[in-house]
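During the no-cost extension, the postdoctoral fellow (Dr. R.K.) reprocessed legacy sequence entries with the updated structure-token encoder. One reprocessed record is reproduced below for audit purposes.
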Amino acid sequence: MSKADTDGAAGAFHGEEPHEASAGRLNKLRAGVLGANDGIVSVAGIVLGVAGASTGRAPIFTAGLAGLVAGGVSMALGEYVSVSSQRDSERAELAQEKLELAEFPDEELEELIAIYEGKGLSRKTATLVAAELTANDPLAAHIDAELNLDPNDLANPVSAAVASAVSFVLGAMLPLLAILLPPASARVPVTFAAVLIALGLAGAAGAKIGGGSVRRAVLRVVIGGGVGLALTYGIGHLFGTAIG
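Re-encoded structure tokens follow.
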């Protein structure tokens, strides 16, 4: 087999990288949609619960703002811890692979050959591909084929935390503004309508990103959101009246 043929066979596998990068972007978009959805639902439940107990703008604003800040911080911390653990795991895998390559180069080459055989190459072609990739950069060859990692693109906990907090806050701003801006008599219906529309759009976006049914996704989030909002408003109204 010529070098060009070998390069072509190797490139067929590395050609998957754009797909992987695209999948990573889709995951980030999906996380952003889910973060915004959490912000919408969480703060809407809080402000409607308070609105059920009080018509005063100040307590509604205070409760909504507190929920927005607390939720944003909680989302950021949770995402930071989760992604930090993922990054630590990725770094440990890279370190382990470096150690194995240094101590067992022949065994690692055979492992790489077996991986390419498993992808459908003949033994001869898999050996040529693995040997050429190993001669060029053994670590890169193994982390791509075995670990499916890019050492220059490991999980970033800071950016993940910021993105999660920002998406939550942006989502939370909608119910907060929807209940504060209208007159007292229109606050609850306006907030209900705004939140259900936003949830429907978020559900549709999530379905588009994930390749699922838009109709089913919208129905799920709108019905679930409507029930949740009605419950929180009812509880606030019930206890607010009883205590008052």
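The chain has one domain: 3-16+37-239. Confidence is low (pLDDT under 50) at residues 1-21. The remaining legacy entries will be reprocessed before the final report is submitted.
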